[in-house]
Amino acid sequence: QVQLVESGGGSVQAEGSLKLSCSVSRNDMFSSRAMAWFRQAPGAEREAVAGISPAGGATFYADSVKGRFIISRDNGKKVLYLQMDSLKPEDTALYYCAIKKKWYGGKYWDRSDEYGTWGQGIQVTVFA
Predict the structure, then answer these.
(1) Which of 35, 55, 79, 89 gives a 20 to 30 Å CA spacing to 24?
(2) Is the pLDDT of residue 26 over 80?
(3) 2/65: higher pLDDT
């Protein structure tokens, strides 16, 4: 069974930076699967933050994080990353990594029902 484990979360002051990692175990098909980061703030619905193609050549971002966050992956190490810079209090949420069921060339990258395997989530708190 595939397991996703997020790390790198924590508390940071506004304008600070954090880098999340998502390690994937027991998945020989890692390099053929698109992946993404989602987040969920208290009382809010889960929302897509950033997505990346299987080879890493194509990336996708929510408007709210464009220019501040960078998604990347290391297929050799089976790790997904999210570099978060210029953090804002509204970025506070539980962050999840997920593996997409099927690659449609970028379509539906932001739909949570297109992802079949999820991590347990990691807290990111940004204080003013």
Answers:
(1) 89
(2) no
(3) 65
